[in-house]
Amino acid sequence: MDKLDCIVIGAGPAGLSATLTLGRARRKVHIVDNGTNRNRVTQESHGFLTRDGIKPQQLKDIAMEQLKPYPSVSISKETVTEVYKDDQKDLFTVHTSNNKSYLAEKILLATGIQEEFSISQIKQYYGKSLFSCPYCDGWEHRDQPLAVIAENEAHITHLTKLVFNWSKDLIVFSNGHQLSNKLRNEFESKNIKVYTARIKNLHGENGNLESIELESGENIFRSGGFVVPSFYSPNKFAEQLNCQFDENGEIITDGDGRTTTNGVYIAGETEKAGPSSLIIAAAHGNKAAASINLDLTLERF
User: Fold this and answer.
1) Is pLDDT of 258 > 80?
2) Inter-axis angle of helices 153-163 and 181-188, to 10 degrees?
3) Cα 278 to Cα 152: distance, rounded to the nearest angstrom
């Protein structure tokens, strides 16, 4: 088995950016990806300088194409099933669902996170008329009749105040959760109506929201809106590699992508343990790759 300098797990903006940086540093790097990045449902990505409005898959295709000139970079489409470290040899072995194995000195975890919704129907509209990030999708839905769907008062407060910047035609749906009188009064002063009844159904076609039906029997017209998902890591690689976590469940790093396990690095939403913009994730990938290259340089010089 050939030994690689680094294996990058995940070909989102963080993993791709890191791979490009490592390829340009003449490092032998292999990137493994299974195509489950969470922005695959997104119609357009926004806020990435020079690429505003691009489809996420197109951005990924361009990045993959730009890796081709670097002969030390290789790519495979497969799912990583296990990662473990041989402490005696100080090397990592990565196994995949295709019964392949890779050996490397360094590992970069860039597998990101995934969303979960308390209302399962949201998935039918997510990425087309319901979104989680106003900075990413607020402009396209400015001045439209929008919903904020969230259950935690702090989340409702934060998201509603943000979305109000793009549309004053705003209704809050707390799905059975009561809000404090103080917050309700604050919203009412801005003509923001609040429905606390549980949501029975979402209506629309082809991912385009048309109305929100409540268990109370009311059916309120809305053309789109913003939601607060919960997020989780799709794998346990960091735990398998004995990376330490803080009290908030985030992987501890030195700020430059290095974890507490020597040779293991993280970038993008894996590092943040929450949603991130493409441009920030790409920057984190670049920074982690610089750390990997520096460590390899110092160890071998």
Assistant:
1) yes
2) 10
3) 26
Q: How far is CA 111 from CA 2, 11, 34, 164, 205, in A?
A: 23, 8, 10, 32, 32
Taking the C-alpha atoms of residue 251 and residue 122, their distance in angstroms, rounded to an integer, is: 29
DSSP state of 175: T
| The residue to which tokens 């009844």 are assigned | 197
Q: Which domains does the chain have, with CATH numbers?
A: 3-113+233-300 (3.50.50.60), 118-227 (3.50.50.60)
Tokens found for residue 198: 């549980």
Helical segments of 90-242, H only: 122-125, 134-137, 153-163, 181-188, 237-240
Position of tokens 């032998």?
A: 28
91-100 average pLDDT score: 95
- The rounded distance, in Å, linking the Cα atoms of 168 and 190 is 8
pTM: 0.92
Structural contact between residues 156 and 226, judged by C-beta atoms closer than 8 angstroms: no
Give the integer Cα–Cα distance in Å for 265 and 52.
29
Of the pLDDT bands very low, low, confident and very high (cuts 50, 70, 90), residue 275 is confident
* Dist. CA 72–CA 1, nearest whole Å: 16
Q: Confirm if 244 and 265 have CB atoms less than 8 A apart.
A: no
Encoded tokens for 245? 């976590």
- Relative to beta strand 80-86, strand 91-96 is antiparallel
Q: What is the pLDDT of residue 147?
A: 98
The distance between the two most distant Cα atoms of the chain, rounded to a whole number of Å, is 71
Is 224's pLDDT higher than 80? yes
Which residue type does 38 have?
Answer: R
